[in-house]
Amino acid sequence: MAGKNILFVCSANVNRSPSAEFWFSLRNPENVYESAGSCEVACRIHHGKYVTSEQIENADRIICMDERNRNELNKNFPGFDAKIEVVDIPDQYSFFQLELIFEFMNCIKL
User: How large is the average pLDDT for residues 31-36?
Assistant: First the structure.
């Protein structure tokens, strides 16, 4: 059975979503993971990857770190809300911070 395409989304694609992509690619390598930011300006400022329509279309699941990310995706890419899940992980962690990994373990089930 083929794995799922899972897209993790945070605001700027600097800490939360790339950490999730890295963590889950180690833990569940049967899936394909990507990460992106939902705010184009924040991605530009922080050198993150802004989400593309191709990523949205190809994803089986889109896991947003907070409700703001869902709102930005729905505004810029309407029609995909059924794929979106929100896990409510606050933007207070650095890349791959141990407490962030614990949040993933508690909030995200693959």
Answer: 98
Q: Give CA–CA dist 14/3, Å, rounded.
A: 25
Give 70-100 pLDDT, tens digit per residue.
Answer: 999 999 999 999 999 999 999 999 999 999 9
- 8 Å CB contact between 7 and 16: no
CB atoms within 10 A of CB 78: 8
Cβ–Cβ under 8 Å, residues 89 and 23: no
Are 70 and 56 spatial neighbours (Cβ–Cβ below 8 Å)? no
Contact between residue 14 and residue 50 where contact means Cβ atoms under 8 Å apart:
no
